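Internal tracking record. Fields below are filled automatically when a chain is submitted to the structure queue. Please do not edit lines marked as system-generated. If the sequence contains nonstandard residues, flag them in the REMARKS field before resubmitting.
Queue: standard
Priority: normal
Entity type: single polypeptide chain
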Amino acid sequence: MVWLKHTPAPRDGIAAVVRPGPEAEPVRGERRINRVLVAVRGLLSYAVSTGEASRGVLGQIYELADSRGLPAEATGEDAGLFYRLRPVHTLREPVADVDRAADAELVAMFLACRSARDRLVVLLLGRAGLRRGQAAGLRRSDVHLLPDSRTLGCAYPGAHAHVRRRENSNGAWSKSRHDWVAPLDFLTVSAFDLYYEERHRLLGEGGSDFLLVNLFRGPLGAPMSPEAIGELFERLRVRAGLGRRVGPHMARRAFGSNVADAGGTPDEVQALLGHRSPDSSGPYRFPDPGRVRAAADRVPTPRVFGGREDR
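SYSTEM-GENERATED OUTPUT FOLLOWS
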């Protein structure tokens, strides 16, 4: 593990110089090292199963453990004692702090946009809660902006977008394995109108069936990639003068938090974010400090029982 942490990958066939020591900068983090070790253990286990390596190798990479150290969710309904193989070599990964984008930050980035397309991208992530891969993978046929779309064969009420997982030429990919529907509010619908007018003015009837396409750099009309959305957010952050990085996923977390702050129930937050499990929506809820303060103030003061204050 020390070798993985401090040894750079060779470049042009030349091995890099290892510089160990207390002040040496690691070239790989804990998460990356653990992923490499998973691949190595799988390769060695396969070698043992095919007879290419001795069975004693397993004793060097695994130790025998039982189920008593596992959480209740991992033991199943039987909750009986069973034995398992636990990796010997693993590193504790630091817990990364996650945050949401503040409403003022999203407004500043929205005002810093120089095109209707860029404003639509900000709203799709910040007001519809899409991931950047889901927004980049939308087709024009996925968007229904009519109050009633039953004539299109869709019974979902109001304006909405269908989020579907499929292979896309621009590398866009929906993390959700199931298809789901993202409702669109009046502000996002208005942004669609302005974007369609801008797209038709610049491209005419050309361009692909993808919703978001290149309008200002080549190849014109080609689908916008998820990486381009990340670059757009970085440009908007700089242009708006924000003092920290505000990524696309922070806009999605802001949407989930705003739904909860507006009185949305957990199942509503789950549905609007396209999650299958209710537990998946937990990291997207950042309660507003004012709402938390109000909840604390609603706790009643101690009552007086029997002529004296209950303590």
